[in-house]
Amino acid sequence: MTILPFEHIRVFRRKGVIKPIFLREPLGILETLIEVFRDHKNKKRADLNEAISDCEHLGYNYKMVRGVASVLESRSFFQSRCSIPPLKARREVFTEAAKLVIASNEERLQVLTNIATRNGITVEELEDSLYADLEDEQYLVDFLAPSKEELMRYYNYAHMISLLAYSLSIEIIYRGTDEHLENIVRRIKGSRISGKNRIKVIIDLKPTSRLNYRSSKLDEILRIVTSKSEWAIKANIKYPQRYKTYCIFEISNRDDGKFIEVDSSELETIIRISTPKKKDTTYDEIIVLDEIARRQGVTTKQILNEIKKDGKKYIDLGDVLVSPLMHEEISSNLKKLNTVGEAQEYLKGLGVRDFLAVIESYGYYVEWSRPRKNSPIYHL
User: In which domain, by residue range, is 119 found?
Assistant: First the structure.
């Protein structure tokens, strides 16, 4: 799920009405940011963040620049590159360095060469491993570039969802029945549904500090609502929460709704539950814990607790959980794959977004080369 960081919300407020400041044309900064992400494939996140910071000085509002970048980041895949565990790499390097007085780059290189040789890796691989557990040291290994028109609409949708997290009540109207949507709404305390062909949904909410969690729930509902041929949303919003009064936000498919769009690349991890009569898991057959937790704005511990309550059994591969039947299928098929491109195509066909996390959890190592999709994979 893509939401804007809440500190990057931009609103227009006048006479009791509030609106997120939507982009209504594909500004040049959108194409610039897309190219920044493209240019930083196979580079570290720290380098990417520095380039994004530079874009803040191009004459655009910095909140907008950062918000658009967060949408693009949701379409990016980052991976740590470490040939040996980072803690082990640091311990060995620091222990070796403590025996000597390091006064030059040559002496530093000699220490790294000694440790790298001892572990059967290159100095470059050792340096990548030293701090691979830090987010800034992750590499951008894949990026699904949208068009600038798509990015504009994705940004507007994410902007709307973030603002709606501050709602005290939401009224949703749409044409036609949708059993799945109604089941989702009924699971929210304080919700009401009325009507037959013209459905009205009312959701009463209280101020909360769990804004990421609320956004994820609203996104689950509104990505369905906004796909209807006719829909309208009206919300009483108290933003920021320190405000004593609320303002009204309205949007429909007849007005600003034409400027928003759900990012379809995010639909891969969502499973629809058609009926509540039979208890079923809300999670897929393959779960990348860090990814799901990041999208929902919760901890991996909370995700694990929800899975435990669902009662569905998974095989624990560390950061990845796989159902027993799917585990057998994946184990068998990965043996037949030779490249990153083949693994990506296969696992995305199973609804997996972070395919690199999955192949690593099965003990496969990537020997990166160009083009990236032809990089061979090996079982460790």
Answer: 86-132
